[in-house]
């Protein structure tokens, strides 16, 4: 699997991780450059659109991403 196509413009790294480079690199390694379809931000983005991704949603919050989608679209099929 390749890298996430959204990595270059992901606001999470520009806004939330600017002062935490080690943590940002760990997230990039685990999600952006590996299993990006498991990224909570990617899940919400593809399910609802980029404007629905909360700024404070971390890549590892998959359960939260599912709740966000189901609140907006209760019949959404994953």
Describe this structure in words.
The protein is mainly α and 78 residues long. It has one domain. It is built from four helices and no strands. 23% of the residues are buried. The mean pLDDT is 92.
Structural class: mainly alpha
Query: How many strands in all?
Result: 0
Shape: globular
Order of helices and strands: HHHH
**Contiguous uncertain segments of 5+ residues:** none
Give the C-alpha Rg: 12 Å
Query: For the residues shown, what is the average pLDDT?
Result: 92
Instruction: Please tally the helical runs, counting DSSP H or I stretches of 4 or more residues.
Output: 4
Question: What kind of sheet is the major sheet?
Answer: none
* Count of domain modules: 1
- Give the DSSP E fraction (strand runs of 2 or more residues): under 5%
End-to-end separation? 20 Å
Instruction: State the share of residues found in helices, binned by percent.
Output: 40-55%
Task: Write a short abstract of this structure.
Helix content is 49%, strand content 0%. It has four helices and no strands.
Describe this protein with a few key phrases:
single chain, mainly alpha, 78 residues, 4 helices
Topology:
Elements: H1 11-16, H2 21-32, H3 40-48, H4 62-72
